[in-house]
Each structure stands twice: as structure tokens, then as C-alpha cells.
Amino acid sequence: MTTARPAPPTALRGVSASGVRLDGVDVARALALLGMMATHVGGIADQVDWSDPGTWAAVAHGRSSSLFAVLAGVSIGLTSGRTAPPGPPRIGRVRARLAVRAVVVVAVGLLLMALGTPVYVILPTYGVLFLLAVPVLRVRARWLLVLAAVCAVASPVVAIGIAPLYAGAGTWEVQLGLVYPLVTFLAYVLVGLALARAGLEARRTQVVVLASGTVAAVVAYLVGNAVAPVPADAGFAFPGVPYAGEGSTAAEGAAQLFLSPRDHSSSIVDVVGTAGVAVAVIALCTLVFDGRGEVVRRIGYPLAAVGSMPLTVYAGHLVVLAALPEYPESAAAWGWFAIGSVLFAMFWRRFFGRGPLERLTARLTRMVPEPR
Asked: What is the pLDDT of residues 29-44, one digit of tens each?
């Protein structure tokens, strides 16, 4: 599954092998962040009804967090050698730095959970996923996709299996492994890592990924809606947990378990559909914004600035939420959060570079010594 390769000089330090930052990836990350903000404060519908344009914003449910997780895999791949991760002993330092990064993300996530805002915080799961990626940093793209497929198939079984462990759990506990199931989200991270290993900078790869992601998402949702349409009482379903609906037969229950198109259902259709959307968005953003000249770079700069400091922006919007006297839920509230995030990120990146939490994380990871 792995083959030793010579380590590019910059990869030895755990940074991108080419040294070129992909603005399209930052733009996609900004879309994920703004989408999650919409699910938090936008007052959007729970499910999409394509006959009602007022519900269309509900596409952010499930797809924003999955896009965020796929981009985590892309980020891991870009900062560990891109298409050519280093071999021993240098890979040990890369892995150690990723582990430090994981601990920082978990710590920040736990602090944000302590604020008590009515938001399911993804960061603790996000950090654990970094740790789970440590052993597979040198696995080839095709095998990463095989592992992702195994996770997708296991996802609904594991999700329904762990649900009884959370009986009587409060808001704090369900954020640790239930709302964002590890097996489900590991599939997303593996897909993102595979994208980076396949050479996301290449135009041909971007086109193939865009087409593949689109086809995968369309086929998955067509199959899911035909075989296991979302139950009428899906509003009672808990995020991350499969739900069959009141009065379902055994066959209907099995269909919902494995093929439900419901967002956050952890079904195979849900994982494949949301992963397909995520990789299509990433490919489209890289096609549009990378290597297209200074004018396009300036157009994408506001979103790229947000996406360049995801930990800071994500944590910042939860801190603001905790400080507000009343929890906002409206399109206007989302608009203010989006504008505020863009203005802050543009200002900070222009004058200070890295976001404050990203700077702290980088400083801590640099404490890992060079291998002898």
C-alpha cells in the first residue's frame, strides 16, 4: 500500500511541496465556513423542498460540515508533501506535527463547547480525525479511496451501533462522536487526502474530480430518493443517527439505514452524496481561482482570506454568538456574520498574515525537533 519516495525539500519541513498556496482551496474552505454559519444562525429550513425556493438554503445542512472535513484531508495532504510525502525518518516529524495540530484543535473545540452556545461544535471530532490520518499519510490515493469506501459502508452500522451509548446524554456529550460520527467523517478526510495525493493542482485532475464528484452525488441522491425517500416525520431524527420513521417496515428500515438521502443520516447515500458535492465544489473552486491571473485572484481574495484562517473564523463566530444577549436566527443575522468574517479576515491577512489561532498552531508544531 505504500512505496518509499524521495522527499521534496520543503516537504521535509511539513509544508507544501510546491510552496504554492491554492486559492481555490481557501475559497472552498470559506464556503464551508459560511455554510456552517448559515446552519447556526441563518434560520434556514431543515430539509430542501425543490418546489419551494424558500427552503433551498437548507442545502447547507450536512454538506457544509462534510465539505469542511474533506478540506481537512486536502489540508493534511498539502502540508505533508502533496503528491510525494517524505519517507523515513522525515515522515516521523510530519506525523508528530500533525499530532500536535490535532491536540490544539481538540483543545480549542473543548473550550468553545464550554461557552454553552446551542451549536454542535465540530472541532473536537476534527482534531481526532487528524490523529486518525497520521498512520495513512504515505498511503497512495487509490488505496485511500478504498479505505474511504469501507468507512462509507460501515458508517450507518457504526452510527446505529453507538447510539445506545448516548442514552440520556446531554448537549456536551453528543458532540463527542454522535452528531459527527468518527467513521462517517473519516471517510471525508480520506477522500480529501486522496485528492491532495492525486495532484489537485493539475487542470486535468480538477476536471476529472469535478465530473466524478458531480456524477457520484447525482447518482447517490437519485438512488436514495427513489429507494428510501426521507420520512415525513424526519424532523424527529437526531443528527448523525439513522432514522426509519414511525411505522416503518423492516425493509423500509433497512433502506433508510443504508440508503437514506437525509442530511446527517450517516447512510451510504448520505456519505457518498455529500462527499461528491464536496469534491465537486473543491474542484470547481480550484478550476476558477487557481492559475487564472491577478484579476481573478483579487476577485477571490475576500473569500480566500476567510478560508486561510478557518480555525480563527470558526472559533470567532462562536465566541461572538456566546457574547450576544440573544441567539440570532435569521438571514440578516447570517449576513452580518458573513460580512464581519470577510472584513476581519481581509484586514488580518493584509496586515498580519496568518490568523491568530493558525499562528499559534504553527508555533507549537515548530517545536517538534528535526529528526537525526
From this structure: 999 999 999 999 999 9
For cell 417496515, what's the residue? Answer: 249
106: nearest Cα among 121, 94, 123: 123
This prediction's pTM: 0.92
pLDDT of residue 180: 95
| Residue indicated by cell numbers 483579487 | 298
CA distance 23 to 25: 5
SS (H, E, C) the chain: CECCCCCCCHHHHCCCCCCCCCHHHHHHHHHHHHHHHHHHHCCCCCCCCCCCHHHHHHHHHHHHHHHHHHHHHHHHHHCCCCCCCCCCCHHHHHHHHHHHHHHHHHHHHHHHHCCCCCCCCCHHHHHHHHHHHHHHCCECHHHHHHHHHHHHHHHHHHHHHHHHHHCCCCHHHHCCCCCCCHHHHHHHHHHHHHHHHHCCCCHHHHHHHHHHHHHHHHHHHHHHHHHCCCCCCHHHCCCCCCCCCCCCCHHHHHHHHHHCCCCCCCCHHHHHHHHHHHHHHHHHHHHHHCCCCHHHHHHHHHHHHHHCCHHHHHHHHHHHHHHCCCCCCCHHHHHHHHHHHHHHHHHHHHHHCCCHHHHHHHHHHCCCCCCC
Q: How many CA atoms lie within 13 A of 223 on its CB side?
A: 16
Counting residues of the chain whose pLDDT is more than 70, the rounded percentage is 95
As a whole number of angstroms, the longest Cα–Cα distance in the chain is 64
CB 76, CB 98: distance < 8 Å: yes
- CA distance linking residue 120 with residue 172, whole number of Å: 8
